[in-house]
Write a structure and sequence with these properties.
single chain; alpha+beta; Immunoglobulin-like; 2 domains; four-stranded antiparallel sheet; four-stranded mixed sheet; 2 helices; 24% helix; flat
């Protein structure tokens, strides 16, 4: 009885997996056909097609590292990273994130046309940060490769209150 139940369960599971993959393929094709934005958002890496590294957006930063020098702990460091879309299709940034909540990026939500420029503002809060600091920001976009990084770096001096407490 257990073997029969197990065989029925495995058979229905196999059948369900086949049905889901077909419906998923149909829905992807329907989205491609119906979506106006699909013509500007290209994912150059797919499982079924070769990698297209020519007809994609390309993000080129004027500078990918900003050294803020030496600041007092508690200051907020701001820097704007300028970039150009050197690719052949509009650039769409889907996300920008850092490794901690102390570094917050703001990026353009609208597509950046080929040849056009854009800016990403980074705010780094130095509260509770000391000594050498390097904070990466990872940008995810319709580029190849799909992620790029920029960095803010510098030295954070301890706050005057902390200096007095340690003396």
């Amino acid at each position: 009885m257990r073997i029969l139940t197990l065989m029925l369960f495995l058979g229905s599971l196999f059948n369900a997996c086949q049905n889901n993959s077909n419906s998923a393929e149909k829905s992807i094709e329907e989205v491609k056909a119906d979506s106006k934005i699909s013509s500007i958002i290209r994912n150059p890496v797919t499982a079924n097609e070769p990698v297209d590294t020519v007809n994609v957006a390309k993000i080129t930063f004027d500078n990918d590292t900003y050294n803020f020098g030496e600041v007092e702990e508690g200051e907020i460091v701001e820097h704007t990273f300028s970039f150009t879309n050197t690719g052949k299709v509009p650039l769409v940034i889907s996300n920008a994130r850092s490794t901690c909540g102390c570094t917050v990026p703001e990026w353009p939500k609208e597509p950046i046309a080929p040849g056009a420029k854009g800016d990403i503002l980074i705010k780094f809060n130095t509260k509770n940060k000391k000594r050498d600091q390097t904070k990466p920001v990872t940008i995810t976009a319709n580029t190849y490769p799909s992620t790029s990084k920029v960095f803010v770096a510098g030295f954070v001096k301890p706050s005057p209150e902390e200096k007095k407490a340690s003396e």
